[in-house]
Amino acid sequence: MPERVLVVGPGAIGSLLAAHLARTTETWVLTRRPEHAQALARHGITVSGRADFTSRPRARVHPQELPELDVVFMATKATYLQGATAALKGYAPGATVVTLQNGLGAEDVVRRQGGWQIVAGTTLMGGVRHSDTHIEYELDAPTWLGPCEETATPLMRVAEIASLLVASGLKAEVFADLRPARWSKLIFNAVVATISALTGVEHAHEMVATEGFGDLGNVVRDAIEEGKAIAAAAGVELLEDPWELSARPIEEGLARGMPYSHAPSMLLDAAAGTPTEYEFNIGALAREAARHGVDAPLTTAIYRLWRARELASTGDLTVESA
Question: At what angle do helices 179-199 and 216-233 cross, to 10 degrees?
């Protein structure tokens, strides 16, 4: 079992990971801001919501201050992954790197920066980051893990990392082929997050309402159906229906008498004026449709609309997409 782990990027997901892992394993956090590291040293991370505890991971700002590591969890957003892995280049050469980014392409980014063994991951858990030291555990869904074929990662190593997460109180599942799980999350997240960012509507009942002619859920459902067709053309049999992934927390909230509403990170980034992960999510889906000759006009339109909006904020609509 891994004995010393690092979490890079203590945002919502990274903070949940670090807080849980620190209860059972020597856990380090790499953050960009010295005041963030100082706050973690003084107060640790408090988790509320689906769990209630405080733990104390060790925090650093510079990679050279880190010890030898067994596992590195890359919890940054996809837009910051290249810079984060470049900063780690030459450090922790024997570690296994776990990618947890939304969308497609994270493993390729990591492979360009070092010869690490890689475990591919995608997570459905969710949280609300209230401060550097307080994270609300909102959705206790699993993290799906699988071996990266390009680095010949043994399935046993994937199982060890999943066991580490489970021992810390999180949910994790292992797959010999991650694509069915990853694509299920890709389609759900790409559609819901981009439509949320475009409209300002959180992931809530409006996203699954289809009874009325003008209901937003009709757009979500139709775009998800296109995503399912793209997956089929790519030879991927989905693990779960992305529409059900979208509807499940909303239905569960209604059953508990606690209406569910969650602001996707893309909506939060758009509100903050920071770059979003659209190229890795809805952009990846649109490009896969074009690559496989799938007619996906709604997916492509959503991608182009968001791309125009994001590039307009820079004042340069001539920038080519990644």
Answer: 150
Q: What's the rounded mean pLDDT across residues 36-51?
A: 96
Which string of b and e fits 236-252 if b means at least 16 CB within 10 Å? bebbbebbebbbbbbee
Tell me the CB-side half-sphere exposure of residue 23, using CA atoms within 13 A: 20
- Locate tokens 């492509």: which residue? 300
- What is this structure's pTM? 0.89
Whether residue 100 contacts residue 123, with contact meaning beta carbons closer than 8 Å, is answered with yes
Strands 117-123 and 58-60: unpaired
pLDDT at 321 > cutoff 70: no
Number of residues that make up the chain: 322
Cα separation of 173 and 182, whole Å? 12
**Beta strands at 117-123 and 143-147: parallel, antiparallel or unpaired:** antiparallel
**Per-residue pLDDT reduced to its tens digit, 167-206:** 999 999 999 999 999 999 999 999 999 999 999 999 999 9
Dihedral through CA 133, CA 137, CA 138, CA 143, nearest 10? 120
Q: What is the pLDDT of residues 266-287, one digit of tens each?
A: 999 999 888 899 999 999 999 9
CA distance 210 to 164: 41
CA distance 27 to 131: 19
Q: What are the backbone dihedrals phi and psi of residue 108, each rounded to the nearest 5 degrees, phi first?
A: -65, -40
Q: Which domains does the chain have, with CATH numbers?
A: 4-174 (3.40.50.720), 179-312 (1.10.1040.10)
Q: To the nearest 10°, the Cα dihedral for 165, 169, 174, 179? A: -90
Give the residue among 251, 229, 247, 239 at the shortest CA–CA distance from 295: 229
Which residues does 240 contact at the CB level (< 8 Å), separation at least 6?
A: 181, 184
**What span, in angstroms and rounded, lies between the C-alpha atoms of 201 and 195?**
8
Considering 123-127, 178-182, 248-252, the range whose residues carry the highest mean pLDDT is: 178-182
